[in-house]
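Slide 14.
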Amino acid sequence: MSANILTYVVARPARGLNIPTSLQVRAIKEYLSKYNLVLSLPITEWYFSVTYKRLLESIISGRYTYMCVYSLRMLPELNTYYHFQFVKYGLERELSIFSVLEDSLVRMNDYVSFLEVNYQYAERRASYSELLSRYEKYMADTRLS
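Slide 15: predicted structure.
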């Protein structure tokens, strides 16, 4: 497989995981080598108010068709601004995600389907697609005012 792979590590605790960046990079490198893929220098996200800014910028750039993370838990948390943005741009770019800990390759469409099946939005009782549509409408309405 010849592809541009965005490698992404976090230098902060991520939903119960606190893995040093050097170990994340090593695990990602070994994981990609199993598939004869080359590790590119990872984007490291530090803990700031705009934590996922570099991740989103990289996805929006359109340079990557794949990304690799240590765990899917290191992606933006559900129902947050950054998660909606991650899914929106990931779907637009047809992004696929390699996950070392879960030992899987997840296509963004499958990721959204997984969320719809496995997570219940108790407060809204809506599918993830409906939430994304509502969110986009909200953002459009907010920009106009």
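Speaker note: Helices lie at 21-34, 53-60, 81-92, 108-118, 128-144.
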